[in-house]
Design goal:
alpha/beta; 16% strand; 2 domains; globular; four-stranded parallel β-sheet
């Protein structure tokens, strides 16, 4: 399994689901971490390592949705074994399947929740702190969010994007709050909301917009529980990891059916709030979980 990085807690939950299902199936999993969304060359090298190992299948959370060198590397891999895209949008004809959700729907469902639960002002301002455009999921997410907010009092004043490491997202949060101190909402990736929560605790003198996350992490979930995060779009990353292993261990002839209309196979997108948070359901990986990385 290849992932962009584990700096973002979200991927820990995906990895946990992968390991959990692999254990049930008696399969071995090898993890590779590219180091971030700027690490195309490293992920390509990792694909070539996978080819040399000749596993039953490759699961890839791609660092780029359409980089030509990455697409070419996946084509080389597909000649030997099935390749499945995981979570991140990936425009590769070689794929045997895609496990994930529609990121436009992620944005849309969060936007509809915000519209229905707005502050009641005649006009409200939001800033969006997201990942890099090359990641593939950021564009559809923003599109869905804007579409859902189109006829609401909430307007997105600015969009900021960078790699989803905590330090990069913290820098964007600082910039957003400085440039839009009157923002009513800060909508952001999980690391962006984590950064905003930490900044709020350390600097109570700074602007205090309502926080909404575009996807879940351990820290975001704690924020939902304690009320500091009003809502998070939830795509069940653990279940996505489980589904990926199930699909990868299925007979290869599934590729023919999927390739004709390659769509995401994944859980239903929901919005989690303090009130709607389900009880006795694991939403993220255990706090002490971290995969062994090659």
């Amino acid at each position: 399994m290849l992932v962009p990085h584990f700096k973002d807690e979200y991927w820990l939950s995906v990895g946990y689901g992968v390991e959990q299902q692999a254990s049930r199936e008696g399969a071995d999993i090898i993890f590779y971490e590219a180091g971030g969304y700027n690490s195309v060359a490293k992920q390509i090298l990792q694909i070539d390592r996978c080819i040399a190992l000749q596993p039953k299948a490759i699961l890839i959370g791609a660092v780029s949705s359409n980089h030509p060198d990455l697409i070419a590397a996946l084509k080389r891999a597909e000649e030997i074994m099935p390749v499945y895209g995981l979570v991140n949008e990936l425009h590769a004809p070689a794929l045997a399947g895609m496990i994930g959700v529609d990121w436009e729907q992620m944005g849309s469902k969060l936007g509809r929740y915000l519209q229905a639960n707005s502050l009641g002002k005649k006009s409200e301002m939001a800033v969006l702190v997201s990942g890099p455009a090359k990641a593939g999921w950021t564009g559809p997410l923003e599109k869905g969010l804007r579409s859902a907010l189109k006829n609401s009092p909430i307007a997105i004043a600015a969009v900021y994007g960078a790699d989803t490491g905590l330090s990069q997202q913290l820098a964007l949060v600082r910039q957003a709050l400085q440039e839009y101190p009157n923002a009513d909402y800060l909508i952001g990736s999980a690391p962006a909301i984590e950064a905003a929560m930490g900044l709020r605790a350390a600097r109570p003198d700074l602007p205090q917009p309502a926080l909404a996350a575009t996807y879940i992490s351990h820290t975001v979930l704690r924020g939902v529980v304690n009320g500091s995060v009003i809502a998070v779009a939830f795509d069940d990353p653990i279940e996505q990891g489980r589904l990926a292993v199930k699909l990868a261990l299925t007979k290869r002839n599934i590729k023919k059916n999927l390739a004709e209309n390659l769509q995401f196979i994944g859980p239903e997108v929901k919005v989690i709030t303090r009130i709607s948070r389900p009880d006795n359901v694991r939403l993220v990986s255990p706090s002490n979980y971290f995969p062994y990385i090659q």
